[in-house]
Amino acid sequence: MQDLPGDLSFTVRDLSEEEIAKCVNPNSLEALDFLRLSYTTPPELSFIITPMILLQYDRIFKLMLRLLRMSYVVNSLWRLVSKRVYSMHNASYRFVREARHFVCSIESYFLDTGISSAWSSFEAKLDKIQAVLSNDADRKSYEKLESPEQLREFHSDVLQRIMTALFLRKRQEPILKLLEEIFTSVIQFSYRLRTQGDTEDDDRQTAEMYSRFKKKVQVFITVCRGLAEKSRATQPQKDSIGSKQLGLGDDSSLSQLLLKLDISDYYVKRHS
């Protein structure tokens, strides 16, 4: 694997007083938001990796860093509750089990469907260009290569697909906010379980926290199901370079997320 040209690093982002207050709270979802992805683009790539592109990469980085933390939280909770035997009806046990399933499903969807699928198409495009440029190709082969403008559009289109799959588009703000609320409820429960311990008999607060979590997950799944059904009824469009999206990064890929989250219609049956 070749080194990335340019200077890739992490910096501390400029924050408002309100944002700083959230970052210094270790039990907030925003605790790691002070980290910013920083990349100094070499002149040769500045036409393709523009400031707007870098901003999109940073937004993806910020969300994935939050998700990485959530993965640590739910796995720590699972190890904690696995140390003792719980009743299947115990609210703490059910909360941890369902929260872990939810976060792991989101993580798998974001990485495999949201990022990897779209990024693979970009890597294949770059490999094709590299193969032509590395060989003594004839003039006809060179003429088939995309122009720098087309490559920039292709790169931008790939990022748009990823951002759509990760709910980072402007029109997806409500569903991203709902996802963040679910993550926050898990962090709050984790803090309570770590600081106050747990008993075999559930108290009222645990039951209420679990109930709120379930309701938010139900709403999230309902919204995703509606978006997926709407996408299936829409004709596939062409992207900026004329190729079909084939479900990469658009709302139709939500069907894969729904299979991960609720393949047996548990939330539909239980809460309908």
From TrEMBL:
It comes from the Eukaryota. GO terms for biological process: cytoplasmic microtubule organization; meiotic cell cycle; microtubule nucleation; mitotic cell cycle; spindle assembly. Residues 3-267 form the Gamma tubulin complex component C-terminal domain. GO terms for molecular function: gamma-tubulin binding; microtubule minus-end binding. InterPro entries: GCP, GCP_C, GCP_C_sf. It is found in: Cytoplasm, Cytoskeleton, Microtubule organizing center. GO terms for cellular component: gamma-tubulin complex; microtubule; spindle pole; spindle pole body. Keywords: Cytoplasm, Cytoskeleton, Microtubule. Pfam families: GCP_C_terminal. Belongs to the TUBGCP family. This is Spindle pole body component. It comes from Bionectria ochroleuca. The lineage of its organism: Eukaryota, Fungi, Dikarya, Ascomycota, Pezizomycotina.
